[in-house]
Amino acid sequence: MSTPYPFTALVGQDDLRLALLLNAVSPAVGGVLVRGEKGTAKSTAVRALSALLPQVPVVAGCRFSCDPAAPDPACPDGPHDAGGAAVRDARMVELPVGASEDRLVGALDIERALSEGVKAFEPGLLADAHRGILYVDEVNLLHDHLVDLLLDAAAMGASYVEREGVSVRHAARFLLVGTMNPEEGELRPQLLDRFGLTVEVAASRETDQRVEVVRRRLAYDDDAEGFAARWHDDETALRERIVAARALLPQVRLGDGALRQIAATCAAFEVDGMRADIVMARTATALAAWAGRSDVLAEDVRQAALLALPHRRRRNPFDAPGLDEDKLDDTLEQAGDGSDTGGDGDDDPEPDGDGPGGGGQPPQGGPDAPDTPDTSDASDAPADDRRTGQDDDSSPAQVPAQAPAGGGEQQPVQASEPFRTKMLTVPGLGEGAAGRRSRARTEHGRTTGARRPQGALTKLHLAATVQAAAPHQRARGRSGRGLVVRRDDLRQATREGREGNLVLFVVDASGSMAARQRMSAVKGAVLSLLLDAYQRRDKVGLVTFRGSDAEVALPPTSSVDAAAARLETLPTGGRTPVAAGLLKAHDVLRVERLRDPARRPLVVVVTDGRATGGVEPVARAGRAARLFGAAGIASVVVDCESGHVRLGLAGQLAGELGGTVVTLDELRAESIAGLVKDVTGTRMRSVA
To answer: How far, in Å, CA of 392 to CA of 402, rounded?
Structure first.
């Protein structure tokens, strides 16, 4: 086993280390979600924590880590005899993003259950993590069905395995720690709320600190054991401090004044439910114990709010995590006036500052400097010198003062208010990644048939299995009531559920589209469908075209934070290279098909169809559009042409695409999603 990186050797990241240590002191806090950019020691810190946890007493030989003082009466390995106790190190179990359901919850031997009537059960990761740490790297990429199982186990403290009437239950109480990069997509709100604390991490911008990070990492890579030995005394001291804080924790007093501050803070920030209040109370108590105090002070409540509330106050994925610290201070001051907070914060002795976060200091950088994706590449393209002859119909008031003569790049406009869309679906039956949108063959959903298993049996079709075994009972010498089942009799259930899709917007950002009300509506529609895609586990992409070229403003993604930032800075102005936009979109789909061939796309082109620039721009746009029609890609064109004279070019483009055209008026917030559904359904019927 490789030597883990010492926890005390971590440089900086005080808020991350503090959150992890508070959970080590009080596992009831509820775990930690670590959000941040890649390469910020998220996984290193989590793995280093397990070496600091106190040892765990267990029943000897129990695969489910029962506590000898209070063994689980329903343990599959029970009943347990008194006196068979052992001690082992606390476990940190890693859940891979691509793990199967059986790997997580365990597996029943269905063949033995049917033929012998025994519950032959192989424990999964939830059993291994009981009374330890369950760590999920890239937790935001975890499949929905695994998220559902984690939610059930976290809520009930137990795992249930059900297979055609055969059930096994075992205890599963664990400290849930997850790490994620927000650029790769957000986390489901239900799972997000299950994490007690959340921490935003970013790489230090201080030269000296970065030098020290590199120096220590190189020393560890050269000689891991020698490096760990140099930090042994610090690790021992920190471990002893955790033990002391655990011993002090039951004696910490949470006064009525502190409780009022906690309740007032949660009410002021309008967090949902009561879990935030409970987590804040437990966190504040752990902070006091960590600082060696028996009373919870206002500073503990403040620090608890900074750790427990940022991820709970988000109303939708477009909201950035974090708290208004001025509002937090005002709330605490108002709630603390004339009340007992368990002690006088001004007279309290200086807390021990030797350990990470000692004394409950606020995280470095604070919530006012959240770690957000870099979005500069969405708007830093220079205006093309050849755009002086653009067909810009925007008003002069919309052109910035520094715009070049003849009409140049327009100031970005804000998106209209996001809305709740109708459900978008791609016709037919797909086989893409699990999601919540279009019909697909999946491992989870309603049963539609049976087949012979290919590899390990995961979902038994009981009726088909019995039907396959029944004709052979006499030949197999059946004499009792039990059914004699062989491996060849087993049948795998085929199921139909929902998949996620790729919705690719191809948006005309030229001068003829620069009217602010039109671009605002376009941005609002894209943001709304992105929010819907986040909820349905889809991908959404955005290609824009203007001037003489097209660009991928938003690569296919589920990250609503990155999408909102890029759309906010989307520039307009210049000529209308429709062909370039369609070719760029076709290239995006080609690359995405190589990455995920099972994910089906839907293309929404938003333009007035007035292709300009270059030689035969309309003819070239038609040739590019026919690539989509030949590939059978579902599409819709939203006609943004305005004025008394209408050329109908968007309709011609839709004909080349093999899709349908609608007018700009139909781009209303409540109609665009339903429009796409209707169009794709019509297309499917015509293909059939």
So the answer is: 16
Q: What is the pLDDT of residues 97-146, one digit of tens each?
A: 878 888 898 877 666 666 666 667 788 999 999 988 999 988 888 877 78
DSSP element (H, E) containing 43: helix 42-49
How far is 655 from 647, CA to CA, in rounded Å?
A: 14
Span 172-177, mean pLDDT? 90
3-class DSSP state for residue 179? strand
- Cis check for the bond before 27: say yes or no (omega within 30 of 0): no
Pairing of strands 56-59, 106-108: unpaired
Measured between alpha carbons, how far is 679 from 515 in angstroms, rounded to an integer?
Answer: 27
Compute the distance between CA of residue 560 and CA of residue 566 in angstroms, rounded to an integer. Answer: 10
Give Cα 163 distance to the centre of its chain: 29
| Sole residue written with tokens 């006036």 | 337
**H/E run at residue 93:** strand 92-94
Q: Which of 370, 343, 367, 65 is nearest to 202 (CA)?
A: 370
Query: Cα–Cα distance between 279 and 245 in angstroms, integer?
Result: 18
Look at strands 32-36 and 175-180 and give their pairing: parallel
Tokens 């869309």 belong to 421
3-state secondary structure 243-277: HHHHHHHHHCECCHHHHHHHHHHHHHCCCCCCHHH
Pull the structure tokens for residue 459. 């979902």
Q: How many of the other CB atoms lie within 10 Å of CB of 497?
A: 18
Which letter does DSSP use for residue 5 in this model?
A: P
- Could you tell me the CA-to-CA distances from 41 to 5, 226, 233 in Å, in that order? 10, 20, 22
In this structure, the strands spanning 106-108 and 166-171 are: unpaired
Q: How far apart are CA 139 and CA 195, in angstroms?
A: 11
The residues annotated as belonging to the active site are 275
Q: Is this structure's pTM higher than 0.90? A: no
Supply the pLDDT for residue 360. Answer: 43
User: Are the C-beta atoms of residues 22 and 244 closer than 8 Å to each other?
Assistant: no
* Dihedral angle of Cα 297, 300, 302, 304, to the nearest 10 degrees: -140
Give the pairing type, strands 601-607 and 502-508: parallel
* Beta-sheet pairing, 175-180 with 434-442: unpaired
| The 601-607 sheet, strands edge to edge | 549-557, 539-546, 502-508, 601-607, 634-639, 660-663
